[in-house]
Amino acid sequence: MATFTPPLREMKFVFRELFNGDDLQNLKGYGDFSADVVDAVLEEAGKLSTEVLFPLNLSGDEEGCTFENGVVRTPKGFKEAYQQFAAGGWCGIACDPEYGGQGLPKAINMMIEELICSSNMAFGMYPGLTHGAYNALELYGTDEQKATYLPKFVDGSWSGTMCLTEPHCGTDLGLIRTKADPQPDGSYKITGTKIFISAGEHDLTQNICHLVLAKLPEAPAGVKGISLFIVPKFMPKPDGGVGQRNSLACGSLEHKMGIKANATCVMNFDNAIGWLVGEKHKGMRAMFAMMNTARLGVGVQGLGLAEVAYQSGLAYAKDRIQGRALKGAQHPDKAADPIIVHPDVRKNLLTAKSLTEGVRALVMWVALELDRSAKAEAAEERQAADDLVQLLTPVVKSFGTDVGFEVANIGVQIYGGHGFIREHGMEQFVRDARITQLYEGTNGIQALDLVGRKMGAHYGRYLRAFFHPVQEFIEQNASDPAMEEYTLALAKAFGRLQQAVGATAQKGMGNPNEAGAAAMDLLNLFGYVALGYLWARMAKLALTKQNDDPTGFYKSKVKTANFYMAKMLPKTGALLSSILAGGNSIMDMEEELFGTAVAA
Amino acid sequence: MATFTPPLREMKFVFRELFNGDDLQNLKGYGDFSADVVDAVLEEAGKLSTEVLFPLNLSGDEEGCTFENGVVRTPKGFKEAYQQFAAGGWCGIACDPEYGGQGLPKAINMMIEELICSSNMAFGMYPGLTHGAYNALELYGTDEQKATYLPKFVDGSWSGTMCLTEPHCGTDLGLIRTKADPQPDGSYKITGTKIFISAGEHDLTQNICHLVLAKLPEAPAGVKGISLFIVPKFMPKPDGGVGQRNSLACGSLEHKMGIKANATCVMNFDNAIGWLVGEKHKGMRAMFAMMNTARLGVGVQGLGLAEVAYQSGLAYAKDRIQGRALKGAQHPDKAADPIIVHPDVRKNLLTAKSLTEGVRALVMWVALELDRSAKAEAAEERQAADDLVQLLTPVVKSFGTDVGFEVANIGVQIYGGHGFIREHGMEQFVRDARITQLYEGTNGIQALDLVGRKMGAHYGRYLRAFFHPVQEFIEQNASDPAMEEYTLALAKAFGRLQQAVGATAQKGMGNPNEAGAAAMDLLNLFGYVALGYLWARMAKLALTKQNDDPTGFYKSKVKTANFYMAKMLPKTGALLSSILAGGNSIMDMEEELFGTAVAA
To answer: Mean pLDDT, to the nearest integer, of A326-331?
Structure first.
């Protein structure tokens, strides 16, 4: 059976030891978050995840959500779990104290999100979506809107959604057809159909407030003519209660591959009353404010699933006896050896471990810079932090979710045929992970964002936010014999990245298709090099501590770093070769030739 | 919606043009299979797959099998489809005419199997398992057993299963506990529990005949003490009918990630009457006879799923409009361009196309050698053919099913969020493909088979069956300027394979863990080089024909080959690097250190 223990030791290692995360206390508004407080919050979040959320993960997947007479019911136990979640203050933990939140730094909140995703990703999406709506309203809402909605989001009594996609458009939001008709009282009547609305309708909260992209009558064509509206299921009353039902309804639930305990709804708005959020025609800006944080959050979903799949695969590999070690029986007293003796099983486990822990370090790096980008005193520090966040957000989303899917599949593979059986819980991680590569912009879109928007921005300024620390680390450690194994491997991989970036920038200038063709390889190259840099840093730290550590924690870190350098970083060579081969072979194929094979 | 057209043109290209498959007619017993006959058979199989099987694929997955009071029911329509299938003679098409079969060569049968797997893999497993039982009995059964069972398997009125796995053992069959108690009349009473029995119980046939691995009382320990028994659900009567019910029953159905329309059963044998097949304690030999063909068949399942996923992804990429081409609108008359204009979508499609068509060529190569290994006149020719089959069977199984899973996922990715929705049928291919990497020996076991059993066998004789033709092709085409692009890329990749094989053989001699650690990388290296060789051959053929071809078929082949050389073959570099890095970083990690991270 799948198993989960909160990886608090791991989290504290990256947060505290690798990145000095306790320094967050020095930022404005974060003074309360001492090491003790952080530890206590993580401890509680760990308990919540193992005692309340994880026990509902498999049953929630089996039962799914139901839709009857317009009413959506979440699986058994979800309502009670949500009440406990809200009562514990978890809905507002990272929200502004002005609205009742606890003002937790984002970097610490990311660790909580990881725990929630490991234990029950489908559950986590309900409060997760609300938090996205909170972010958009906090940034772009009027004072009245903030006062009306934010305290309700924070105490969990109301929830929120993002309504972007329509049947004919997802990536290309310029095509949306939902209309907003201005009313004399300043409100709007919203009409249209939205699909794939996560948590669009459910039985967890008193009210559900939709952030809806729609077009005003006089709107310019394309993405520059989209506005954002808040459209609640029930009208807010001045006393904080809810009034009449708005004219919007869930039309149906989607039947999906995974995240079955989360209600994915078709939402029909039929002259539903809504109010403009932010400026007319500037809805995409607000949407992107939500989306950038959401993209990091999706990367964290991949991380959370990778962690629980690794832990579960490891437990099985130690427990399942089958065959003998190639060099002779390791446990002659047993009928067979545990499968962890077999090199290929170990390779799978170490692939999972090194990728999962590497992505955790990457997420933490970006999350801390996200806090600094918002709270640092000096404008340059804020900008430098934001540069890194801008650059690495698509990498966290795409690489992190690809790792989530890969490690979930490794978990299944270690279980063998048993991994395919639902009651063991391993195949659910694969199905749940699959959506993370698709939503909030497919991973292909993330690659285009990296190469098209981020790489060239401000003459490569974002790039330097990543290249400088890597270069500096290599230079500072090049002469240390204990670090040679890491710096040499990292320098080689980093050189490949620099070469690939240079080649793509040059070719892409004359021909954008060259950049597009290289985009996904380049994003993955970024991912492997970023993890290589972080593993080299983790190795450096662990090397100094491993001799005084009876738990073996640091020794494990050193050996995992060794594996990453030897077995994972070589992938950068193939990625560079593919990039240098250019885009001709991709673009040169006439559209008809993809399919003649079938037709002829 | 997922879509499927039988890729007959593709099949004929590899069968006839690439490998001169019509020469099979010259082999003993295959004289009837002229080109016309082959074409007619493929045409009919194509119709069967699109008209009868494909329409039941999605509904079969949705409904699944049911189990009530010991009775298993297949999904709606399966019974009628099976009757049609059996009435058409498809159950026995590749069986010996002596038993009523049509004696089709295995190479042609593989194409039919591919069509069945593309259209409805879960359905195909029912007759597929029967065919496995047919093979074992044909090889090892007594004359009486053959006369009793084989005609029934051929006409489809009875079906067969393979009962190997038990709850505590799958890979390591030496641990099985099922017992066979000899009876005075020469029969045996079989007692034990078998799990993961595909088609173990269902409503398609009059009788279900289980081939069961069990241990005799005096059996030696381990795999050398396993015997094979035939244990029918109903006792065969001399008149060809069925008599009393045997004491065996389905205990439950497994709830699985995919292949839901195939009944995966727990089978309980409680003093069930059975008869020995082949010699006592030699059951593994018979099982391997079934399994080697079955492994090729599982590779073909991967191929079939890849084909239908590619076709479906392609149709969507041409139909779905979203965004504009990077160089400017391609279809200014439409609201957006079809997504096939985007480089990353094209890269996904070409990855799918080049891998799928490459695996088809690989399967065909091995299948033709399989026929030659059985039917060629000269003993050396039979042996040479068998050498290649031995070597490449684990590659077809592992690489073919990894390609199936990868391409199924590409199909989902092209669909974006819609790929995650069940009604579109794309995510089913992913779930169905996932089992192929696990059963008939996990892919990790295939890699061990390649490196541990096949690579060193007869001083590398199997290896030479692959190395010689590749080397010869490179030499023969090295001086042809039109072929330079292909021979150079192939020679580079082939050199890497030779180096990797040499290094692994040398290191593995002193330390088997080194071979085990390299095994999966090496198998994948074999796979990419084999496809590189086959794509170079296909390019050579297509280059000579493309100018006289109005359909664009050969032009498409040339361009797909170009893509494979530029974008896929570079992966061989990373695989070699990983192999050369050795197994230290995999074996050096103490078992406790995998998990301290969690415990500490």
So the answer is: 94
